[in-house]
From TrEMBL:
EC number: 1.14.11.1
Residue span, TauD/TfdA-like domain: 117-367
Record GO terms (molecular function): gamma-butyrobetaine dioxygenase activity; iron ion binding
Alphabetized Gene3D superfamilies for the sequence: 3.30.2020.30, Clavaminate synthase-like
GO biological process, one term: carnitine biosynthetic process
Gene: Bbox1
Superkingdom classification of source: Eukaryota
Annotated organism of origin: Campylorhamphus procurvoides
Taxonomic lineage: Eukaryota, Metazoa, Chordata, Craniata, Vertebrata
Function: Catalyzes the formation of L-carnitine from gamma-butyrobetaine.
Keywords: Carnitine biosynthesis, Dioxygenase, Iron, Metal-binding, Oxidoreductase
Protein known as: gamma-butyrobetaine dioxygenase
Catalysis: reaction(s): 4-(trimethylamino)butanoate + 2-oxoglutarate + O2 = carnitine + succinate + CO2
Entry GO terms, CC: mitochondrion
Length: 388
């Protein structure tokens, strides 16, 4: 239960409202934000959770004309033009501008908890059918996927189409130039290095797109007897190591725009080109997305010649850290397994396997955007934890 309001008063020459809470804490709310956030039917459309108030009608220098406190659970403000707004105590408390309250709200919205791992990864496993039929299991799956970056779903049918069902469970899959789903197997005249039996080095999928898919699903339908082991590495964990070990290399990889290209025919014909920094960082310098696929890194390189060697030295150091025994985790998918992982964080690879006259290894793949996954995670949390 949120504490009630003990006192409310205007401050900052009337440009802000200070709320004194019953627990002794205080919150300060700028009047321009309060007016902009009015929840009355004229200013807000509840059915769409959307603001109706036009920015052109907002006075950035607005002050409160009258203040009133109703039963310690609501404040009322009358504005200079006579418009009246009401704000519930609980609504205000959640939106307090203190650093602590803002951090709590951001954690509630975006699930930022991150559990780093290396070769010691205890691969989380959940039965596929439980995820499909049980909200608690689906919630656990998506929470773990967000925190750890990888979850193995077990016991799916060994046929194509299971990923379409999984897509419906979260909302919908991401369509790309390789189709809504795609078949990873050794193919003649392969239009992608994944469609061969060779070794795949650590990479993230599709950095050639301006907005690479956030989550990847790989469903094992058939597995080769020899070879074909999967490898994964926690890219964020490795980035933290690189930043500490060689700040200059980290700075180069997080500031240099690398050209990527992918040209061919699949779901349709395509000629895709993009620039990405191998390590995308936030305002704190923390890695938030890895964009690295050596196979589709273009020979075109739009940087001065004197910066090329330092870039390659930085990239090689990053590559060596990714491949160190302490960081990578190796496992082998069994038919019916579906590995789900964060394509912005977890780099994956594959060991080679023998070719044959018939298909010996067959995975079906699909993508989803983090927006879709996070939407389902929030809805499941509300349902499972019965939260407003």
């Amino acid at each position: 239960m949120s504490p009630g309001i003990q006192k409310v008063e205007a401050v900052d020459a009337g440009h802000a409202i200070r709320v004194q809470w019953e627990d002794g804490r205080q919150s300060c709310y700028p009047c321009v934000w309060l007016r902009d956030s009015c929840q009355c039917p004229l200013c807000f459309l509840p059915s769409a959770s959307a603001r109706r108030l036009l920015l052109q009608d907002l006075d950035v220098d607005i002050t409160a004309k009258e203040l009133a406190l109703a039963g310690r659970k609501k404040i009322s403000i009358t504005w200079p033009d006579g418009h009246a707004s009401e704000y519930e105590a609980e609504w205000l408390k959640k939106r307090c501008f203190s650093e602590e309250a803002r951090a709590e709200m951001q954690a509630d919205l975006f699930f930022p908890e991150c559990q780093y791992w290396g070769s010691d990864l205890q691969l989380p496993k959940i039965p596929f059918e439980e995820v499909m039929c049980n909200d608690e299991s689906a919630y656990k799956w998506l929470c773990t996927l967000k925190k750890v970056g990888i979850v193995l779903l077990t016991g799916a049918a060994t046929k194509q189409g299971e990923l379409v069902k999984l897509g419906h469970r979260i909302g919908f899959l991401r369509l790309t130039f390789y189709g809504p789903t795609w078949q990873v197997q050794d193919k003649a005249d392969a239009n992608n290095v994944a469609y061969t039996n060779g070794k795949l080095c650590f990479h993230t999928d599709y950095p050639v797109l301006h907005h690479p898919p956030g989550v990847q699903f790989l469903h094992c339908i058939k597995q080769t007897a020899a070879g074909g082991e999967s490898e994964v590495v926690d890219g964020f964990h490795v980035c933290n190591k690189l930043k500490k070990q060689n700040p200059e290399a980290y700075q180069i990889l997080s500031s240099t725009a690398v050209d990527y290209t992918d040209v061919g025919v699949d779901y349709c014909d395509f000629a895709v080109h993009c620039k990405q920094r191998i390590i995308d960082i936030d305002s704190r310098g923390q890695a938030v997305r890895i964009n690295y696929n050596n196979a589709t890194r273009d020979t075109v390189f739009d940087i001065p010649a004197e910066k090329v060697r330092p870039f390659y030295a930085a990239l090689k150091e990053f590559h060596d850290l990714l491949n160190s025994a302490e960081h990578k985790f190796t496992y082998k998918l069994k038919p019916g397994d579906i590995v789900t992982f964060d394509n912005w964080r977890v780099l994956h690879g594959r060991q080679s396997y023998p070719s044959g006259s018939e298909v010996t290894r067959h995975l079906e793949g699909a993508y989803a955007d983090w927006d879709v996954v996070m939407s389902r995670l929030r809805l499941l949390r509300k349902r499972v934890l019965k939260r407003d």
